[in-house]
Amino acid sequence: MSDDLVPELHDIGKLVDWNSIKRIISEELKIDNLKQVSSHSFVLKDTTTDQRVDYLRDVFGVDEPEGRTWKIINYHHREKIPKELKERLKGDEDLLLIGLADHRGSAVSRMLQKKEKKEDMDENNENKRSGGKKHRVCLHKLWNPDKDIEAKLISDKNKFKELITFIKDYPSIKDDEKGYERYFAKYGEALSFCPEDSSELLNVTSLLTHSSLVGKFYRFFEKNKNLLKTRKGKKLVSYTTPKEAEENIEVLFLHGKVRFHINPVRARDLNVFNDLEKFVNKISELDEVVFHTPDEFLAFLPPSTDLYEFWGNYLKECLSIEFEGVKCVIEDAFPTPRAVKLKKLNNELHNKKSYEKRDNSVYKSLVGKIKIDHDHHICDLCQMYEATKEFPRDYVYEHLCEKCRTAVRNEEYPFPLDKLCESCKNKNEKWLEETISENLCIHCFNLREKEPRAPKIVEWSESDEDFKVAWVKISLDIEELQRILEKLYEEYLKKKEFEKSREGEIRFSVLSEFQSDFENFLGDLMRKREDNGEIEGLLADKFGIANCQWILSDLFCIRIESLADITEILKIYNKLFDEYFPKFKKVASPIKLSISCSSIKFAFFWHWRFLDNPVNDVNVNLVGKGEMHLNLEQLDNILKLNEISVPQLRKLSKVSEVSKELSKILLYHKGEWRLVKKEDYEKLKKFASAVGFENILTYAKMISEEEQLVE
């Protein structure tokens, strides 16, 4: 085995059904009392003689692996290894770093003495605990407990030998290869099914999620070993235990929100999402980033880090980051900076002296880039940089042939058609009819020059035909996610008759475990395949690929025939939400759906203001018609209206065209307006009380086929 340390492999022993494997070893070596030095270590000893048992060659025909990775696999839980071995390993830097990373990547704090005693009991007497039945190792998802996943553990001789051989032959890490890729490629599925901790109460994250996070934390601490040292008098000494390090090492803990500071007006301005996606993809690979969504992230940095220098390497000119941050010791740095601030207010920090608020904003450096004079104004689109280009004049000019450029070089725009060749006329026909001129900086101008990210939207917007579109955005509130998962975890503990304590708070791995399901949820709605770029998903199945434009994993545009099509989007979303996150409907949801509808000609930045600022769980904007803001329970209710009250809703919509107040009076007081059947009227009135009149009225307009969208 290579001597390169691969931290992701530290818990590979958890993939093994050790009771079955120890039974095989006991039978072949005639040893009755086998025990591991820790619950998932490959090191066994005979408790009768208190001697280590070298079983790999004799039982499985394979030599024992060697190297630093093998060491951390077997001894990273140092509190459980024999005293003499513990003394020998004292001060080992690899074990200190992996222990620290393991703590940070766990689902909850490494506490619960009750749980550790229970583990020891399980190891010594499984039958006593389980009543003679084999213990099921299950991954419990707090947001979807009905879909508990049973782990597929290695229990036969050949598979175990294959695992040992895999560890033994693990190659060195090449410059172009991440150390964990081979491991995740071979055992990724098994890791995703296996809980990081098989004990009830702590089985809420997968081994895959935990291993990924431990790898990130290990490399973070390895790169910043100076954080592990402290001054005692005139000497610089290192912390010797994870607990000591956690209580003293200071870090900068950040929650970043990526913003673009342009107002996308034209379809080509959506190219800003190229820069946003590339930025998030790049930083998600950083060991400093432990959680991310399509536009937000959580990160750790050394306290002395220059944020402009660090993040400026990845930012494009049109992007910025708003940071909510704190400086604190590692033990206090979870699960979000805002939660740390709350702990400070509630006097719950382990180390109050280290706490410091560090909110900030980071832009690409602007020094020397804004030089406004009489000839150059500030950019109309981003309001950040010097405007040196005129659009569409310079865009058209750069796309003319050399002969035509010479002919119109000194002409006013739009260029005289008689000075252009037929080819240039035809190629730029649409732009030559453009009467609106914009002063742009080179960065915003280049955005429009690039291959369009949303070619269908460009085609629809530049067409002579007007199209109706629905912009769809799914947002995730990280702060609310943390609070809701805490509540669900507390509910899980109570169900198991266990009292939640301060040390039982959830950590990053639970957020990351959720992230995996959230990404799958978005992909099931609509995804772009990596192999061929084709769009697929439930929305594409319903509306057709030709009518769907994928922009980001959480942002889509759908060409619709009428407003009534929005109900189909809501139904698909609601059904899929029930499959993935049923518990959120019973507690609260950190996921928000926003839909904004209009003509394709309507400027996107007006839609974006609505899409990026959700008010409730479900938000619908019919431009010029009204808005609807619902919680998930109200969504369930309002979708039922479609089954019982379509004619009545259309009548309500018609009356509201004459007078909104009249429609309200007719609904609540009935008057002379009869809604076909009394029972239907009563149902509609009841629903209106449950979801609100404004929401009912907007929904009534939405399902009226004859309604026309405004530009």
Task: Provide a compact summary of the structure.
With 711 residues, this protein is of the alpha+beta class.
Describe the structure.
The protein is an alpha+beta fold. It folds into 4 domains: 7-225, no CATH class; 249-363, Alpha-Beta Plaits (2-Layer Sandwich), CATH 3.30.70; 389-461, no CATH class; 468-702, no CATH class. Helices cover 43% and strands 15% of the residues. It is built from 31 helices and 23 strands. Strands 8, 9, 10, 11, 12 and 13 form a 6-stranded antiparallel beta sheet that branches. Strands 19-20-16-21-22-23 form a 6-stranded mixed beta sheet, sandwiched between helices. α5 packs across α11. The protein is globular, with a radius of gyration of 31 Å. Residues 110-117, 123-133 and 706-711 have low confidence and may be disordered.
Number of domains: 4
Global morphology: globular
Rg from alpha-carbon coordinates: 31 Å
In DSSP terms (H or I, runs of 4 or more residues), the helix count works out at 31
- Percent helix, as a range, is 40-55%
Secondary structural class: alpha+beta
| Strand content bin | 15-25%
Distance between the termini: 66 Å
Largest sheet: 6 strands, antiparallel
The count of β-strands is: 23
Oligomer: single chain
Average per-residue pLDDT, rounded, comes to 86
Question: Uncertain regions: pLDDT < 50 for 5+ in a row?
Answer: 110-117, 123-133, 706-711
What is the fold's blueprint, element by element?
Blueprint: H1 18-29, E1 34-36, E2 44-46, E3 51-53, H2 56-60, H3 68-75, H4 83-89, H5 93-104, H6 113-124, H7 126-130, E4 138-139, E5 149-150, H8 157-168, H9 181-193, H10 207-223, E6 229-232, E7 235-238, H11 242-248, E8 250-260, H12 272-284, E9 289-292, E10 296-301, H13 307-312, E11 319-329, H14 337-345, E12 356-357, E13 360-363, E14 389-391, H15 393-398, H16 402-408, H17 422-427, H18 429-432, E15 438-440, H19 442-449, H20 455-461, E16 468-476, H21 478-495, H22 508-525, E17 527-528, E18 535-536, H23 538-543, E19 548-552, E20 555-560, H24 565-580, H25 582-586, E21 591-599, H26 604-611, E22 618-622, E23 626-630, H27 632-644, H28 646-658, H29 660-669, H30 678-691, H31 693-702
Helix pairs in contact: 5-10, 5-11, 22-24, 24-27, 27-30, 28-29, 28-31, 30-31
